[in-house]
Write a structure and sequence with these properties.
The chain is mostly helical. The protein has two domains: 146 residues, no CATH class; 59 residues, no CATH class. The protein has 13 helices and no strands. The longest helix has 14 residues. The chain is globular, with a radius of gyration of 18 Å. It starts with 5 loop residues before the first helix and ends with a helix. 29% of the residues are buried.
């Protein structure tokens, strides 16, 4: 029996459900389409644990982009999509965070009613996996957003230890910006192995 495609599943809906819980349920099911059969639950459970996600399904990038595009196409009220972003993020599945990055990258500040970088930072009140933050940030850059200016980065780094570390990761996306922030890079709290590799690379570049 042929497995239904993601498009076939999404075509069942003429609009986004009115209730946020129903939207989250729909998205959770949509994530399961296109997942390679070789991925086992034990593997995805380990990935979820290591990345601090509530789940990690393994949805491929093309399917995630299709889901984001579908949401932005089927819902004429972009501000309603913007209001869904905190709920999607709060569930904190790997695919949820990926979807938020895609939505932020493909919506204007006017539609979001706030700067996309500011929204991303405000969503992160605690830890986030380095890989997840870099993936989302790089998506915003691919979507046409420039990195925040220097004063924004400095102000954000002063808010919390976590945000300070995130600013180092942002600087690593375009290392030319790092030259003006050597002290900020040096004084960030110690992080995990990947974070420290990124910090060391930045310091070597600007030394």
């Amino acid at each position: 029996m042929e497995t239904p495609s993601l498009d076939a599943f999404l075509d069942e809906f003429a609009a986004l459900p009115k209730r946020k819980k129903a939207v989250l349920k729909l998205l959770r099911e949509a994530y399961t389409y296109g997942v390679p059969g070789i991925i086992t639950k034990s593997m995805t459970d380990r990935l979820a644990l290591s990345g601090q996600y509530t789940f990690h399904i393994g949805t491929p990038d093309p399917e995630m982009r299709r889901i984001a595009s579908w949401m932005l196409t089927i819902e004429p009220d972009r501000k309603r999509v913007a209001r869904l972003i905190p709920k999607i993020w709060k569930r904190h599945g790997r695919e949820d965070l990926k979807l938020v990055g895609l939505l932020l990258a493909n919506m204007s500040d006017e539609e979001l009613e706030e700067d996309g970088w500011t929204i991303l930072l405000q969503l992160i009140q605690d830890k986030i996996a380095v890989e997840a933050f870099l993936e989302i940030s790089e998506e915003l850059v691919r979507g046409g957003r420039t990195l925040p200016n220097e004063s924004w980065i400095i102000d954000a780094s002063n808010q919390s230890k976590t945000w300070h570390q995130l600013m180092i990761l942002l600087l690593s996306i375009d290392e030319t910006h790092a030259e003006n922030h050597s002290e900020l890079i040096k004084t960030a709290a110690k992080g995990g192995e990947l974070f420290e590799r990124i910090r060391t690379r930045l310091l070597e570049r600007i030394s």
